[in-house]
Amino acid sequence: MSAKTLPAQVPAKTNKLFYIDxxxxxxxxxxxxxxAIIAYCAPGGWYYTEKTTNMAAxxxxxxxxxLNQSFFMGFFFLLSGYFTKxxxxxxxxxxxxxxxxMRLGIPLLFYSFILSPALGxxxxxxxxxxxxxxxxxxxxxxxxxxFGVLWFVAALLLFTLLYVGARSLITIKFKNPMxxxxxxxxxxxxxxxxxxxxxxxxxxxxxxxLKPFGFQLGHFPQYISLFVIGLLAYKNQWFDSLSIKTGKxxxxxxxxxxxxxxxxxxxxxxxxxxxxxxxxxFHWQSLxxxxxxxxxxxxxxxxxxxxxxxxWNKSSPLLSKLSKSTFATYIFHPLxxxxxxxSIKNWSVDPAVKFLILAPTAVVASFLLAxxxxxxxxxxxxx
Length: 383
Fold this sequence. Notes:
By secondary structure, the protein is an all-alpha fold. It has one domain. It contains 15 helices and no strands. α1 packs antiparallel against α2, α1 crosses α13 and α1 (about 20-40) runs parallel beside α14 (about 325-345). Mean pLDDT is about 95; it is low at about 1-15.
């Protein structure tokens, strides 16, 4: 989610896309909350976890992470794709490639060789009760390629390099701009993408990770398609012509899609099926979930984009500062969550209560830490 792949690359004719800046802030906050709630309430893996057994917390937490997963990382790929072409056109292929390698590659190296071992050590030493020095811990550390949450940056770098290669080999001229997709086209595309996702998840179910890169291939059909859609959206100025009407229709679609959560529960109970059947494999339940996930994901994404375009296209000194620090916040928020989690490890309350305290604190502290880090000379050249 490089800050440099977003508003900094907007050409002069589109110099008032404040709503994109504000969307970056919202999506970054969702990322922090997503990982914080996984630490305490929702299913999923994280560096340090204390899972609650309170179903009153588990159910809404599971719904929250399911809804997030349906759109929020795909949204980042959409925005990154949208600003890739103007940056390439302005800088040229060689400079653009060098810039991407620096601004995406350096954070990957930093996270893998510095931040990831530090996070592992903190959990190993302070949570697991192993009292060793950091140097002793590193002497037995073997996971030097570990991108953690920066799997997104690794995937974006890969997509970007493929784009550069395609630009150098293929020249496609569009005689006429492609019309902005309407509600029906968007939802039909979501259904087709859901079917493709189902096919991919037969071999690579949700939770299967391509190591050491951290890619969950079961989600990549959406990521790839949204990056490409971002490229087309810029070329055809789809964001500019996105209507309020389309946004409202898809907002209704998103709300109606929420009704499927009790349906999924009833199917599991009535058939006494493993919940993993929703995650992949050759099961009709996996097909149903994959299509639903893309349907509601695209509904939320486009309705949020429409809402932001028509209602959030404004800025302030605070919003501007927050927007500029989103990439740094994304990089360092795991450190904040882990440190805060370990600091309240011995607090004898239900983990769900810990989440309620930690979540807003982690959001504020992550942005604050990022702002401080950006004051270090030279850092802004990278992030």
